Amino acid sequence: MDVNEVLLPGVGLRYEFVNEDGDRIGVVARRTGDFEVVLYGEGDPDEARPVFRLTGDEAETLSQILGAPRIAERFADLTREVPGLNAGQIEVLPGSPYAGRPLGDSRARTLTGASIVAVVRGEEVIASPGPERMLHAGDVLVAIGTAEGIIGVERLFQG
């Protein structure tokens, strides 16, 4: 999908694309940190009708909700493109030795060679989690590495 980026002097940036139904949709990223989603009219390409506004925090929440179901798909696509690279999803079970502890305590990369690239907590996606990231039962870890490394991460977190 093509996304056009337009500088709006003094305002910020506008990103726009045409959806499957032929509607021209825009997202105005304001310098203030707020966002506005707009829908363009059919007659005048510069006439936009605001659909809704979001604060920076609200926009972040919406992007996490929209991105959560797709993150595993994107890593799966990547692993098909790179021979020997695998992606896996590992749930932190209630009895896991790392539930309620920071990710770094697991030493997952050192012990398995696989990297934990995201933590999915409900609808929230925490990309590139640091070693201080606290893990909770029910979190789903997205790991990238060899097949053996992914199995090692699963054994580590599921006991």
Give a written overview of the molecule:
The chain has three helices and nine strands, in the order βββββαβαβββα. It has about 160 residues and is of the alpha+beta class. It has a five-stranded antiparallel beta sheet with strand order 1-2-3-4-5. The protein has a four-stranded antiparallel beta sheet with strand order 6-9-7-8, sandwiched between helices. It starts with a strand and ends with a helix. The chain is about 25% helix and about 35% strand. A hairpin with a 5-residue loop joins strand 2 and strand 3 (about 25-30). The mean pLDDT is about 85. It folds into two domains: about 5-55; about 60-159, Regulator of K+ conductance, C-terminal domain (Alpha-Beta Plaits, 2-Layer Sandwich), CATH 3.30.70.
Strand residue content: 25-35%
Tell me, what is the CATH class of the largest domain?
A: Alpha Beta
Radius of gyration: 20 Å
- How many helices? 3
Strand arrangement within the widest β-sheet reads 1-2-3-4-5
Number of domains: 2
Topology, number of strands: 9
Q: What is the CATH topology descriptor of the largest domain?
A: Alpha-Beta Plaits
The overall pLDDT average reads: 83
How would you describe the shape? elongated
Pfam families: KhtT_N, TrkA_C
Organism: Actinocorallia libanotica
Protein name: Cation:proton antiporter regulatory subunit
InterPro entries: AAE_transporter (IPR050144), KhtT (IPR026278), KhtT-like_N (IPR058776), RCK_C (IPR006037), RCK_C_sf (IPR036721)
